[in-house]
Design brief:
Blueprint (H helix, E strand, L loop, with lengths): L2 H22 L8 H14 L4 E5 L5 H8 L3 E6 L2 H10 L5 E3 L12 E7 L10 H11 E12 L5 E4 L7 E4 L4 H10 L2 E9 L9 E8 L6
Parallel strand pairs: 1-2, 1-4, 2-3, 4-5
Antiparallel strand pairs: 5-9, 6-7, 8-9
Helix pairs in contact: 1-4
Length: 217
C-alpha cells in the first residue's frame, strides 16, 4: 500500500463514521484516570506559552482536555467530518485539516505534540518518516506524547455501524516504538503500559519522549 493509499483509506473511514463515533464515545477521558494522569504530566513538562499540536485529533476531545490543562493547543486531522464535530463542540479552539506525514509547520515551531492513537493506521515502513516529521516540528527540548494499543495481532474493522468502509488498526510493542523514536532523535522520559478498561481488549501504551537538546539536524 502506498502512502497515498493508506492516507486516503484512513480519511474515508473516519469521514464515514465520524458522527456515530462522536455519539457513542462522548467522553472517554472522563472514565480513565490513568490517561488523565499522563496528560497532566505531559502538560506540566511542556509548560505554558509554547504551541502544542494534537495530531490526528478526531472529534477534538483530547484537544479540549489539553486546553483545559492550560496548554496553547490546536488540533489537526485528515477527516473533514471529524473536524466539523471538533469545531462544533469546541468553538473556541483551532482545528485544521492536514496529514501528520506532511505537516504545514515550521521547523522547531512546537513546544509539544500529541499523537493519541493517531499512528495506529500508519504502516510499519512509514513510521520512521512519521517520527522524523514529529522531530522536525518540535523545538529542541520539546515533548512528544504518543499512545497506541499494545500487541502483535492487528484488528480489522469492516463496515462499522453499517458504513461501507474498512480499516486495519495496527497494534505495536512499546519497546519497538521506543527504539524507532530513539532512532529519530528522541530521548525517553516515561513509558507506561496499563491494563485494558472494560471496553478495551488489550493493554494500552503511552510514551512521552523529548527532542534531545543535543540533536543537530
Amino acid at each position: 500500500m502506498t502512502t497515498a493509499d493508506f492516507v486516503t483509506a484512513t480519511r474515508t473511514f473516519y469521514d464515514a463514521i465520524a458522527e456515530d463515533y462522536a455519539e457513542l464515545f462522548p467522553d472517554e477521558i472522563a472514565g480513565k484516570p490513568l490517561d488523565r494522569a499522563v496528560f497532566a504530566g505531559f502538560a506540566e513538562l511542556v509548560g505554558e506559552g509554547g504551541a502544542v499540536a494534537d495530531l490526528g485529533c478526531g472529534p477534538g476531545r483530547v484537544t479540549a482536555h489539553l486546553a483545559s490543562l492550560g496548554l496553547s493547543v490546536f488540533g489537526l486531522d485528515l477527516s473533514e467530518s471529524m473536524l466539523a464535530i471538533a469545531r462544533r463542540e469546541n468553538p473556541g479552539l483551532r482545528f485544521e485539516r492536514g496529514s501528520m506525514l506532511e505537516l504545514d509547520l515550521a521547523d522547531g515551531s512546537l513546544a509539544g505534540a500529541v499523537s493519541w492513537y493517531s499512528s495506529i493506521h500508519t504502516p510499519v515502513d512509514e513510521l520512521p518518516r512519521l517520527f522524523a516529521e514529529f522531530h522536525r516540528v518540535l523545538a529542541p527540548g520539546g515533548h512528544l506524547l504518543i499512545a497506541f494499543q499494545v500487541g502483535d495481532e492487528h484488528r480489522h474493522h469492516d463496515r462499522p455501524w453499517g458504513h461501507p468502509v474498512a480499516l486495519t488498526f495496527l497494534r505495536r510493542r512499546p519497546e519497538w516504538i521506543a527504539e524507532l523514536l530513539a532512532a529519530a532523535g528522541f530521548a525517553p522520559v516515561v513509558h507506561t503500559v496499563r491494563e485494558p478498561h472494560p471496553n478495551e481488549t488489550t493493554q494500552q501504551a503511552a510514551l512521552i519522549v523529548r527532542r534531545d537538546q543535543a540533536v543537530s539536524d
